[in-house]
Design brief:
Elements (H helix, E strand, L loop, with lengths): L5 E6 L7 H15 L3 E6 L31 H9 L3 E5 L2 E2 L2 E2 L1 H9 L4 E2 L8 E2 L6 E8 L4 H6 L3 H11 L2 E9 L11 H14 L3
Parallel strand pairs: 1-2, 1-3, 3-8, 8-9
Antiparallel strand pairs: 4-5, 6-7
Helix pairs in contact: 1-6
Length: 201
């Protein structure tokens, strides 16, 4: 049995080999060079049904996430994510917010909450943070506008919290105004630096 640490990249983009996928891959490659086992999950490849807000998963008490009544690929994905020590969570910014594919995934992660009927608000089932994460996004707007004046970063931080991970940094690719774009050396250097920080190097 391998004692290697595991990093999983979650790609919420609609395009493989696009900006988000490339940036997530850059971090994963740096981690692999540091001896970390890497895996990648494309949300696009999985059947993720819409949350119907039935709140069945929110009713049972305890620290273990609730079970969803929908039969799709979410449980398999979450089990895989559970096995990770580190997460790289990437999603693009569409219309000023995280894209719909990633939002659908976030909504299905409400199973990490506890909200019995008759109570005013949900609480996180397990407040112990066992993982660390890096958040990745991109926008057509410049970095300062895209990162600080829309809701994407807040959404990704929420998702990281649901998955039991504390963000240690982020990569934001701004001014994405061309269909094909290559990551700058500055972004690549930041990916390497964050990978080292993620594992405590």
């Amino acid at each position: 049995m391998s004692d290697k640490k595991i990093a999983i990249g979650i790609v919420g983009s609609y395009r493989k080999q696009g900006v988000i996928d490339t940036a997530v891959s850059e971090v994963l490659s740096a981690l692999q060079n540091l001896g970390v086992e890497i895996k990648k999950i494309y949300l696009l490849d999985y059947n993720i049904e819409f949350c119907t807000n039935c709140r069945t998963c929110l009713q049972p008490p305890g620290v273990t996430r609730g079970k969803c009544i929908l039969k799709d690929d979410m449980e398999d994905m979450l089990q895989s994510i559970d096995s990770a020590d580190y997460l790289i969570i990437g999603a693009p910014t569409n219309a000023g917010y995280v894209n719909a594919l990633t939002q659908r995934f976030i909504e299905r992660c409400v199973c990490f909450g506890y909200w019995p009927w008759g109570t005013a608000a949900p609480v996180l089932r397990n407040k112990i943070i066992k993982k660390r994460s890096i958040l990745v996004s991109a926008s057509a707007a410049p970095v300062l506008i895209g990162k600080y004046f829309n809701g994407t970063m807040k959404a990704l931080k929420t998702l990281s919290k649901y998955l039991g991970a504390q963000p240690i940094g982020d990569i934001w690719v701004g001014s994405v105004t061309k269909k094909e774009i290559e990551l700058s050396n500055k972004i690549k250097e930041k990916a390497t630096t964050l990978a080292q920080k993620l594992i405590g190097k």
